[in-house]
Amino acid sequence: MTATVIDGKAFAAKVRAQVTEHVARLKADHGITPGLAVVLVGEDPASQVYVRSKGKQTVEAGMKSVEHKLSADTSEADLLQVVADLNADPTIHGILVQLPLPTHLNEDLVINAIDPAKDVDGFHISNVGLLATGQKSMVPCTPLGCLMLLRDHLGSLSGKDAVVIGRSNIVGKPMAQLLLGDSCTVTIAHSRTKDLPDVVRRADIVVAAVGRPQMVPGDWIKPGAMVVDVGINRIDAGVKEDGSPRTRLVGDVDFDSVAKVAGAVTPVPGGVGPMTIACLLANTLTACCRANGLEAPEGLTA
Ligand code: GUN
C-alpha cells in the first residue's frame, strides 16, 4: 500500500481564504476589523521567524497585526503590564505570547494573565478546563489544525482508536481532548509507555508529537492508519559544496517506511506546520466574533 500524502499547505491556504472572506464580511456588515497582538520576548531566531510569518499572514487576511518585541531581560512586571494593556485594548481580539519565554519569566503566570476570551493559543487554564469539559473554548492551534486534517480525510472519527505520542500542554494533551470530543478511543503514549510499538500498532489514528526525529517507523503502523506528524526536527544531511554543514527538516515519523504502510500521512515540511498559523487566524476571527456577540463561522472551530 502507498499512503495518500496529505497536502497541509493547500489545506491551510483554503482555511486562510475562508478566514479572509469572513473578515471582509465582518468589515462590510459590522465595521469590525479583527486584531491580533503577538508578544515576543528576546531574540530566539526560530521564534523571530514564526512571529514575522504570523504578522505577514495576519495582514494578508485583512486583520490588524500588532507586534510587541521586548528585550530578553524584560521584567515580569513589565511583561504583565503589556498583557494588561492588550487585554484592555478593544481593537485587539487575540493575544499570543510566543513561547518559550526566557527562564526568569514564569510562563504559567504570564499565560494566565491573558484575558481567556483573547487567548488565541488556548493555553489559559480556563480554556484548558473548558476544552476538557466539552464547553466552548479557544482551542490550541496545532491540535486544531491536526483535527481539521483528520476530519477532512476521514470524515467522522467516531469509534476510531487514536494514539497520541507525546503529552505536552501545547500539543499532546489538547490533541487527546479533541479526539475524545470526536468520540475516538484515545491513548496518550509517552516516554514511559511500555511496549510503545504494540500500542501504536492498534491505532487507526496516530498523532506523533514528541520532538524526536524519525522515531516512528513503518512497522509500528497498522496498515491503512492515518498518521499525523507534528514533529519539526532539523537533522544533519552531509556537507555543502563549500564544506559547510547541510541540514534537513524531518518529522517524528520515518516518512518513507510509514508511507508504505499507512493509508494517509502528513509530510514534514508541508503537513501540519502550515495549519498552525491558519488556525491562529481562525481563532482570532472566532475571538473577534464572540467579543461582538456574533456566531463564530462554521468549520473554523472545533
Ligand atoms: N512556541 C511554539 N509553538 C507555539 C505556539 O503554538 N504558541 C506560542 N505562543 N508559542 C509557541
Task: Please characterize this protein's 3D structure.
The protein is of the alpha/beta class and 302 residues long. It has 2 domains: 30-116, 3-Layer(aba) Sandwich (Rossmann fold), CATH 3.40.50.10860; 141-275, Rossmann fold (3-Layer(aba) Sandwich), CATH 3.40.50.720. It is built from 10 helices and 11 strands. It has a 6-stranded parallel beta sheet with strand order 1-11-8-7-5-6. Strands 3-2-4 form a 3-stranded parallel beta sheet, with helices on both faces. A two-stranded antiparallel ribbon has the order 9-10. Helix 2 (45-60) crosses helix 10 (273-291) and helix 6 (141-154) runs parallel beside helix 7. It is globular, with a radius of gyration of 20 Å. The model has no long low-confidence stretch (mean pLDDT 97). Bound molecules: guanine.
CATH structural fold name of the largest domain: Rossmann fold
Mean pLDDT: 97
- Look at the structure and give the CATH class of the largest domain: Alpha Beta
Which term fits the overall shape?
globular
- The stretches of 5 or more residues where confidence is low (pLDDT under 50) are none
Topology:
Elements: E1 4-5, H1 8-30, E2 35-41, H2 45-60, E3 64-70, H3 76-88, E4 94-97, H4 107-111, H5 125-132, H6 141-154, E5 161-165, H7 172-181, E6 185-189, H8 196-201, E7 205-208, E8 226-229, E9 233-239, E10 245-250, H9 255-259, E11 264-265, H10 273-291
Parallel strand pairs: 1-11, 2-3, 2-4, 5-6, 5-7, 7-8, 8-11
Antiparallel strand pairs: 9-10
Guanine is lined by residues 96-99, 121, 141-142, 170.
